[in-house]
């Protein structure tokens, strides 16, 4: 589904991502773990086609992010850690705008918007301008917008920050639904507990470099990472 091969991205003299390689298979929820500033967001933005990178290759379902960007973007959705929505639009206009971009039929968009808005208890607020939404409501709207075209790969940056417990639980269920249907999830977090309970596989990044990947059991069983885990747990508190 997603192949990252020797990805390198620099800012001036600093390597934000340094020779990173990851393979994410269909039906996997893949957690990307690291401190704030470790290179997670840079990697996710590179995968989403937002950032150009200096070296390496990223392919999504066989298509190159660098050379076939439109084909890749048809297959993905990206939710940043702080969604930047069009505040002057109402919620429903924004969702219809996203549906228009992806060519979703009127019947399909109506059914999907109704389903997801009901799940997130957002239906009554869709007629209101996004400027009036709380941070949590904006995040829910961004999630609905990401799911609306049924992407094969969903990329999320710290998706649970700012969500109430009920919405976070709902999102976890929706992530698993995507994978049950053959899609994949690639999301960043610095909270080990979230990754441990949810992920099929994880990768740990530190100072731009991959230091370990595998199942959570394999990673947790690596005694050399004990200090990294302690630091992450301290950061999450």
List keywords for this structure.
globular, 9 helices, 237 residues, six-stranded mixed β-sheet, 10 strands, alpha/beta, four-stranded antiparallel β-sheet
Radius of gyration: 18 Å
Number-wise, the strands total 10
Main-sheet strand order equals 6-7-8-3-9-10
Beta-strand content bin = 25-35%
Helical stretch count?
9
Please, could you describe this protein's structure?
The protein is α/β, with parallel strands linked by helices and 237 residues long. 39% of the residues lie in helices and 26% in strands. The protein is built from nine helices and ten strands. Strands 6-7-8-3-9-10 form a six-stranded mixed beta sheet, with helices on both faces. Strands 2-1-4-5 form a four-stranded antiparallel beta sheet, with helices on one face.
Topology of helices and strands:
Layout: E1 2-11, E2 14-24, E3 29-33, H1 40-47, E4 55-60, E5 63-64, H2 69-75, E6 76-79, H3 91-101, H4 106-119, H5 135-147, E7 153-157, H6 165-180, E8 184-189, H7 192-198, E9 201-206, E10 209-214, H8 216-220, H9 226-236
């Amino acid at each position: 589904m997603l192949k990252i091969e020797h990805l390198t991205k620099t800012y001036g003299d600093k390597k934000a991502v340094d020779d990173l390689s990851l393979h994410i298979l269909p039906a996997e929820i893949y957690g990307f773990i690291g401190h704030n500033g470790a290179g997670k967001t840079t990697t996710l933005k590179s995968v989403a086609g937002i950032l150009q990178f200096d070296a390496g290759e990223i392919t999504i379902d066989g298509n190159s992010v660098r050379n076939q960007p439109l084909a890749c973007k048809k297959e993905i959705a990206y939710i940043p850690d702080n969604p930047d929505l069009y505040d002057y639009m109402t919620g429903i206009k924004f969702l219809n705008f996203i549906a228009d971009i992806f060519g979703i039929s009127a019947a399909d968009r109506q059914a999907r918007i109704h389903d997801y808005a009901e799940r997130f208890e957002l239906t009554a607020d869709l007629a209101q301008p996004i400027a009036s939404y709380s941070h949590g409501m904006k995040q829910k709207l961004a999630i609905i917008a990401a799911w609306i075209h049924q992407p094969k790969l969903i990329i999320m940056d710290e998706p649970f920050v700012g969500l109430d417990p009920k919405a976070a639980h709902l999102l976890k269920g929706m992530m698993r639904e995507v994978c049950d249907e053959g899609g994949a999830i690639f999301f960043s977090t610095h909270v080990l507990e979230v990754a441990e309970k949810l992920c099929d596989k994880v990768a740990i990044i530190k100072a731009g470099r991959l230091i370990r990947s595998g199942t959570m059991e394999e990673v947790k069983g690596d005694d050399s990472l004990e200090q990294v885990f302690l630091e992450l747990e301290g950061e999450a508190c």
